[in-house]
Amino acid sequence: MALGACAATPSNERETGSAGQLFRYSSRQVSVDLTDAQRETLRSLRDRRFPGSTSMQMLDAIAATLAKQGFAPVTVDRDTEMVEAERHTVLVPKWREILRGALKSRVGALPGKPDHERLAAIVAVRASGEGAGLLVRVRFDRTVWDSNGDARTETVLERDVYEGFFAGVDKSLNGEAKPSP
């Protein structure tokens, strides 16, 4: 019966960093690969066509949108027409981190609770294969660290994240948001 409590690791999870088997000597990192159904969902979210813009205008609009959405730093590579950015969010208040640390020092091991998140954006701009205009393809990856230092990285599949990004790019292209220098 004791073996029944051990859950099998899902086939789409890869352990990219091990915390040790018998003794915990480090943190654990897990990357979650997309299933076939999730890949289809991502395909429906990640692309948007923009007619009538140059790649330089588009890169500026993307950078302005990401900066306005709280991403920093935002890196624009005009040679490869790629934009990369990240946004960090603390998920718990400082007093809770301190209380948890004090409890851990007295009680010992506690189960990990999410406490920090990194949202990474990778954006590519290409000529649209369907006539004039540009194709913008974006992917958001989320890494969540817990209070034990363990990390889990997954591709974001939330429609509102992608729609919010593309709506921001539209606004930037229409002059409603100024591109950052």
Keywords for this entry:
alpha+beta, elongated, eight-stranded mixed sheet, 181 residues, disordered N terminus
Average predicted confidence as pLDDT: 84
What is the radius of gyration computed over CA atoms, rounded to a whole number of angstroms? 20 Å
The residue ranges in which pLDDT falls below 50 over 5 or more consecutive positions are: 1-5, 177-181
* Strand residue content: 25-35%
> Total number of helical segments?
4
Order of helices and strands: EEHEHEEHEEEH
The counted number of beta strands is 8
Most strands sheet: 8 strands, mixed
Task: Report the principal-axis shape.
Answer: elongated
Give your account of this protein's structure.
With 181 residues, this protein is an alpha+beta fold. It has helices spanning 36-46, 55-68, 94-107, 159-173, and strands at residues 13-17, 29-32, 47-50, 74-77, 82-90, 114-127, 134-146, 151-155. Strands 1, 2, 3, 4, 5, 6, 7 and 8 form an 8-stranded mixed β-sheet that branches. Helix 2 crosses helix 4. Mean pLDDT is 84; it is low at 1-5 and 177-181.
Outline the fold blueprint.
Blueprint: E1 13-17, E2 29-32, H1 36-46, E3 47-50, H2 55-68, E4 74-77, E5 82-90, H3 94-107, E6 114-127, E7 134-146, E8 151-155, H4 159-173
Parallel strand pairs: 2-8
Antiparallel strand pairs: 1-2, 3-7, 4-5, 5-6, 6-7, 7-8
Helix pairs in contact: 2-4
Q: How do you describe this structure in short?
A:
The protein is an alpha+beta fold and 181 residues long. It has helices spanning 36-46, 55-68, 94-107, 159-173; strands spanning 13-17, 29-32, 47-50, 74-77, 82-90, 114-127, 134-146, 151-155.
